[in-house]
Amino acid sequence: MRSFERIISNIVFSLCVLLLTAAVFRPQLELPGWLQASGRMHPVLLHFPSALLLLMLLAIPFRARWTNIPEFRTLFGKGLLLTSLATVLTALSGVFLSLADGYDADLLTRHLWLGTFTAILSYVIWQLWTSDGLAPSWLNLTSVAGILSLVVGSHFGGTLTHGSDFLSFSSNEEDESGQVRRPPVTDSTAIYLAAVQPLLQAKCYACHNENKAKGGLVMSDIRKMLEGGKSGAMWVAGDPDNSLIIERLLLDMQDRKHMPPKGRPQLTADEIELLHRWIAAGADLKKPFNALADTDSLRTLAYGLANSAPAVQTSGKTYDFEPAKSEDLKALNGPFRVIYPVDYKSPALSVAFFVAAEYKPAMLEECRKISEQIVSLKLTSMPAGDDALDVIAGFRHLELLDLNGTRLSGKGFEKLAELKQLEQISLSNTQVSATQLEKLASLSSLRKVYIWRTKATEEEVMALRKKHPAILWESGYQPDASEELTLTTPLAKDRDKMVFSKGELFEIRHPMAGVTLRYTTDGTEPDSLNSPVYKGPITINEHTQLKVIAVMQGWKKSSVANFSLFSRGIAPSTSYLLNQPENRYKALGVVSLADGLKGESRNVLLNWLGFR
Amino acid sequence: MSEYNKFRLNHTRRHFLTRAGLGIGSIALGSLLAPGMFGRKQEELESLPLGVAQFAPKAKRIIYLFQNGAPSQLETFDYKPKLNEMIGQDLPASIRMGQRLTGMTANQEKFPLVGSAFEFKQHGQSGAWVSSMFPHMASIADDICIIKTIHTEAINHDPALTFFQTGAQQGNRPSMGAWMSYGLGSENRNLPAYCVLLSRGRGNGQGVYSKLWTNGFLDSIHQGVVFSSGEDPILYLNNPEGQDRTSRRDMLDQLSKLNTMAFEQFGDPEIQSKIQQYEMSYRMQTAVPELTDLSKEADHIIRMYGPECLVPGTYAANCLLARKLSESGVRFVQLYHQGWDQHGNLVGEMPLQAQDVDRASAALVKDLKQRGLLDETLVIWGGEFGRTNYCQGNLGKDNYGRDHHPKCFSIWMAGGGIKPGMVYGETDEFGYNIVKDPVSVHDFHATIQHLMGINHEQLTYKHLGRRYRLTDVAGQVIPGILA
């Protein structure tokens, strides 16, 4: 039994050391989540040591009356040790809890240090109790100190949790009413109702209601609120700086008259600003938002507080199927068939195929191994035909199916009937007809169907929309036939070539298929009806001023492209450079000066000479 | 696990001794003092799922139509008739409140207010005001969310751009696209996760630099890949003459062996990136031609984006390519369109800029929508800051210019979990200060990451002894714009 005591004693000692270190280095502490969570046990744990320790410490000064029974004495010692263990653990959990935000810093520090002190003292007292030799007065002294620190420390702890007025003699009943559902805030809602009253309710009603009217002030009733309390009316309309409520809010935190009292939830700077501006604007209980200019700062502030931003959501859908086997995923994943989870915790998979030249139907069939998990499948531009539907029909959790630009005709859409989760199917650029599309409408979850450039005509699409209005039938952009766009200017095939030897060819290009290019060589503007049509490269024998336009039915003619083409003339038989160019910009030396090529401006070819 | 974590397993001797030196005895206390040595926090950081979303994402891909140079909010979405009433009057000091000015207007004696020379009308269910220069963007008013109250800290282009792209003004931090690539990986491993497309308008332009799409301290596989604006969007992708695909494969296999040997010797994770990059470019040889072939585009598409979409290097062509890249699983497509810096001649230049981008920007949203992709693709349109409500230099009779203004400007976002058809935030009647719902650049980043399924506080990378995030130490998700 002795060894049992020794073990516990050692544990308590080491916990004391840990406690002290944790208390000292509290600002630097960063806890793993589970430890921080254990801190929340503090309010539960604390009742044991407070009661036990208090009783035991009270008993110690009177020990002469009951320690004459030795068994009793040993038993008390053991109890004291266990109580000490509980105290230290409680204190430690308190330190962990203190890392959570939202506590009054001053109070917290006092509570924390008194708690730590009490815990360590309890262990010291146990040591004193077991070592008989010491003067009994030490035991008495430490016990009294322990009682004091326990009582005061607990009081601070209580204030932290319940607020400073919890122990006051007035009624402790909180007003739990008032959690009414508010109508949505619109432009015609009164600012008081939308922003001011909710604020007062959240931060003031608890002590200023009909049951508990501290300072004689009742705020939960508009009429009584306007009467004010013992110190007078809450505000002077239009004069916030002489209004009692603003004064009390702005008083120093240490001031006894500061509101809300220390330890209670305080108003944010924005909230005080709101009250200030609302009183400045006349403290009108009925004035709606739309009575103020759009840019009015009271309006924007109140609007912001009334519609305080909704929390950002990060959770997606949850799925109840098992994740795929990782060896399957590894085997199936490759550059042309990419499989990835929706997010890293999700068992749901997205599958996408890339590079049409590499696609084989077997690649889709292999996906049957993960048919349960596929929620999104993309076969965009793959040469997949109608037989792909046989495989796809087995992916029963599919939500998104992209078949844009595939070779699908839509035959066999009825096979997809089992895809109860399918929400979106993309069929743009396919040969699917309206009759085939009709079959999709029976899919219960289907919401969006993309059918731009399918065989379905505009009338058929209208009919589908009318018949199945719950589904979005997106037929995409239809060009406005009456709109005439301007053709782009013709270009030289080789933009850099401007000097021609006798008989060399000059070639013109236009990126649009089907355009007619018309040109002149006499300097006049080409005409879209009569000028010669460009049929192939033009032979350049002399300096030529070439003007070209592009024309096409249904389009406006292009602007004129102007090419000044030079004939080479006499080539020098020998040439040399008097000054040498920079090392990096030598090109081919003197040859580059007369090679008939334009210097390239993007510094890739460096076919020009550079001098410094 | 990532190369980074493998690399971390290569403990140095000093590292080992430091760890071991603490001894087992310190564990109990250490677990309390050292930030969660066994705690959940550490676990969260270590097991942060790289390459997959933390929670179900609303947006899977982003297309960012960056309007480089800063288009004026007062001629796009922020309608301020008061400025037309007060034209020529000095900006009241009570509105400016000592806001610092750029070197270009700091010496100006007067700040004559000037209203938009372009008409405004309300559009869509939300009644959003859009200037007459942007009829096509106005037509998608019900699909987009216009944010009028974004604000930044920088007043010059380079720091402002860098701030928008990387979350810090100084540069060398990873850009948004790199963070997305790092956090979410690539959907299509045959294309870079982060692609950059450049175009130049006819207005006064400002440069873009490769630091805007840098991987910063992240692994270099996360760097943005710039597409060339010429005929061949990706240079040197084709095999050189005389080499066929088989011999290419053989060459890469041999090269990879050599690189693996080098990695075993030095353990430099960059060698692994190199191997992966070679492999990807090999696969890109088949993936890219499928994408860049515009010959199969329907007449519909050409009319939608405008005929310029067939001319490589134009904004319209880049929008079309962006749709194709995004449709093919590219995580982040970044466009830059230069030419929005209207210090002077705003009335002359802005309509040209608008002509370049209006139709194609709207077409991109419509095109994604008709393919069922808008729900999972986030489209962002906007510049790096706003422009002043007063004229830079002397106010002309029919023309004016505007200087840089960081305190409020307008951008729009669409798709990918953004509430459609709304206008968020309010500016004062001078269009100078925000009166309601400000959105900082950090908030903007936090919200984007939230839409992509990432908690912006948890996607971090440890560099030079501390953990970095895109939002640095700030940023809050803006719930008001989430669908």
Key attributes of the depicted protein:
heterodimer; A: 612 residues; alpha/beta; Leucine-rich repeat, LRR (right-handed beta-alpha superhelix); 5 domains; 7-stranded mixed beta sheet; 4-stranded mixed beta sheet; 35% helix; B: alpha/beta; Alkaline Phosphatase, subunit A; 9-stranded mixed beta sheet; two-stranded antiparallel ribbon; 17 strands
Structure description:
The complex is a heterodimer of chains A (612) and B (483). Chain A is 35% helix and 10% strand. Chain A is an alpha/beta fold. Chain A folds into five domains: 2-162; 193-306, no CATH class; 326-474, Leucine-rich repeat, LRR (right-handed beta-alpha superhelix), CATH 3.80.10; 491-569, Immunoglobulin-like (Sandwich), CATH 2.60.40; 575-612, no CATH class. In chain A, the strands form four sheets. A seven-stranded mixed β-sheet of chain A has the order 1-2-3-4-5-6-7, with helices on one face. In chain A, helix 4 packs antiparallel against helix 7 (136-162). The N and C termini of chain A lie far apart (97 Å). Residues 170-181 of chain A have low confidence and may be disordered. Chain B is α/β, with parallel strands linked by helices and 483 residues long. Chain B folds into two domains: 4-45, no CATH class; 53-481, Alkaline Phosphatase, subunit A, CATH 3.40.720. The longest helix of chain B has 25 residues, at 346-370. Chain B starts with a helix and ends in a 15-residue tail after the last strand. Chain B has helices at 3-9, 13-21, 27-33, 40-46, 81-85, 93-96, 135-139, 157-166, 176-184, 245-266, 269-292, 299-305, 315-327, 346-370, 441-451; strands at residues 61-67, 120-123, 128-131, 144-151, 194-200, 225-227, 332-338, 377-382, 386-391, 402-405, 409-414, 422-424, 426-427, 434-436, 439-440, 461-463, 466-468. The radius of gyration of chain B is 24 Å and the shape is globular. In chain B, the strands form five sheets. In chain B, strands 1, 4, 5, 6, 7, 8, 11, 12 and 15 form a nine-stranded mixed β-sheet that branches. Helix content of chain B is 34%, strand content 16%. In chain B, a hairpin with a 6-residue loop joins strand 13 (426-427) and strand 14.
